[in-house]
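TOPIC: backbone geometry
CONTENTS: sequence, C-alpha cells:
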Amino acid sequence: MNPVKWKSLLLLGIAIFSFSEVNAEPFEPFSFPSMMSALSITTPLEFCGEPVPVEVQEVRERIEKELLLSLWHRPQVILWLKRSRRYMPYIEEVLRSEGMPDDLKYVAIAESALRPHARSSKGAVGFWQFMNYTGQQYGLVINRRIDERRNIFASTQAAIRYLSDLYATFGSWALAAAAYNMGEVGLNAEIVEQGVNNYYQLYLNLETQRYIFRIIAIKLILEDPAKYGFYLAEEDYYPALSFDRVRVQCFKETPIRIIAQAAQTHFKVIKDLNPEIRGHYLPEGNHAILIPKEGSENFQARYRDLLKHWSSNQKEQTYLVKEGDHLTAIAERFGVSLASLIIWNRLNPKAPIHPGDRLIIYPKESVPLTVDEDENGNNSTSVKNN
C-alpha cells in the first residue's frame, strides 16, 4: 500500500477511536444466540394441529432456510413483535369464536407484516393481502372511496371465512393456506396432476413451496422470541388499538376534516384509525367510524353543528373543461391551489383532463370553524377570525 494512504488511514482510525472514547457511550456487547442453536427443534412441530414431518430431511432443510432468512432480518422481526400486541388480540378472538386454529394468525404476518397499506406487485392489498375479486366475493367493500382490505376488522372476518372454505375444500390446513397463497384452482390442478394431496410432498411454484415454512418460522419466533435473542419489555410493544366506534350519516360527500373536528382530533388520526377510507372525503351514506375515546362524548352534537355550518357555506361552482385547459392554469384562474383542485375533484394528478370534464371549485377564501364547549358541555359553533 502507498505509505501516504496507509498513514492517512491510520490517522483516520485514531481520530474515530478517540472521538468514540470521548463522546460516546461504550457499546453493549451483542448477545444473539448462535445461528446453529436457533435451528434446534427439540419438540414435535405442528401447524394448525397437523404434524409437520421434520423427520424428513428435505422438510427440515426448508424450515431451517426460512428460520435463517427471518432471523437475518432482525429489524423486521422486531416490528412483527411490536405490532403483534396491536392487532393479534382481535385476530385471536375471531379465530376462537369461529373454532379455528390459532396458528392461522401467523398468516397475516406472512402476508403483510401487519401493515394495513401493504400492496403486492400483483395488486393484493391490506393485512390479509386480498385481491380485488376475492375480497369482494367475501363481502369487502372495495372501490375508489373505501377499501376494506385495509381494515383489520372487516378483512380479518373475510380472511377467516375464506380460509374456512378452503379447509372444507382441501381437508388440510396446510393445503388451505397454500391455496390462500396461490389460489384454489391452481392448487387443485397440481394435486390432480401430481396425484398427491399432501402439501409437504407437492411440487408447487417457488413462493408457495416456501409459504407454509415461512409461516412456521414466524410461529416459532413469536412463540418464543427470547430463544432467538429478542428481549422486549412490556412497554416495548405497540399498545392495542383504543377507540370508540360512532355512526356517521353523510347526506353527501363529507370532508374527513369535519369528522376529525367533531372528534376533537386531527385528520391524520381519523385516517390512521380508518385506513380503509381513501382520499379526503367520506362518500354519501351511513358509516361506522373509529375515533379516539376521548372525542366520543358529545361527538354527534358537534358533528351536526359542524356539518350544518359547512353545508350552509358551500358555494362551489362547476367549471366545464375547455380545449387547451390544464389543471395548473385553471387553479391560477380561480386563485386556488393546484393541490386543492386535485383533492376537491378526486383527480389523479398524472392523468389528463379532457374537454367536457366538470370540475368543482370552491371559493378562494375559507373561514376556519371551531366547536366550543361551555362548562356544562353544551356546544357552540364559532368562526375564528385571525
